[in-house]
Design goal:
The termini are far apart. Helix 4 links the parallel strand 4 and strand 5. Helices cover 42% and strands 19% of the residues. The chain has a five-stranded parallel beta sheet with strand order 3-2-1-4-5, with helices on both faces. The chain is globular and about 45 Å long. By secondary structure, the chain is α/β, with parallel strands linked by helices. The chain has one domain: Rossmann fold, CATH 3.40.50.620. The protein binds adenosine-5'-diphosphate.
């Protein structure tokens, strides 16, 4: 069975992320959406909250699991017996960073392959940080994130200034 890992901050999950998950779920036997703890990023949602929001959004997928991990991605992958990392690519700015990460992960574990999926044009401008910014200033986030989590983001953004 081919298990792929889709890692990120998902603070919160957006329609851009969901599109990548949907396409990956069609391509691989199993997808694990992995919320990675990044000590450099102060989040809006706690790791547990992000996992809960993603679980709600992917409830309908039989082959998608959601987990979190604090540590090196390659160590999580060994634990799960997976060699496949999925990454979404938006613009050139993603490319440089992701290129470096892919080479580093391959250096740490030569069995690991990173698969890149192009964003769909309508999500190419979408990031968790832009969603947070819009929400904090009271803008409409409909169409940017899955319907079932809009209320949670609006509520959280009121206490996050
Ligand atoms: P963000 O940059 O939105 O904070 P993450 O750090 O959670 O997102 O990103 C996790 C993964 O999802 C990365 O591979 C990132 O390139 C990808 N990704 C994020 N937003 C999109 C999008 N709109 N379309 C395609 N891929 C995306």
């Amino acid at each position: 069975m081919r298990t792929s890992i889709y890692p990120g901050s998902f603070d919160p999950i957006t329609n851009g992320h969901l599109d990548i998950i949907t396409r990956a779920a069609k391509t691989f036997d199993e997808v694990i959406v992995l919320v990675l703890v990044n000590p450099d990023k102060k989040g809006m949602f706690s790791i547990e909250e992000r996992v809960e929001l993603i679980k709600r959004v992917v409830k309908g997928f039989k082959n998608v699991k959601v987990k979190s991990y604090s540590g090196l991605l390659v160590n999580f992958m060994k634990k799960e017996n997976s060699q496949i990392i999925i990454k979404g690519l938006r613009a050139m700015s993603d490319f440089e960073y992701e290129f470096q990460m892919a080479l580093m992960n391959n250096k740490l574990d030569p069995n690991v392959e990173t698969f890149f999926m192009m964003t769909r044009a309508e999500y190419s401008y979408l990031s968790s940080s832009s969603v947070k910014q819009v929400a904090i200033f009271g803008g409409c986030i409909k169409g940017l994130v899955p319907e079932e989590i809009i209320k949670d983001i609006v509520k959280k953004s009121k206490t996050f200034k």
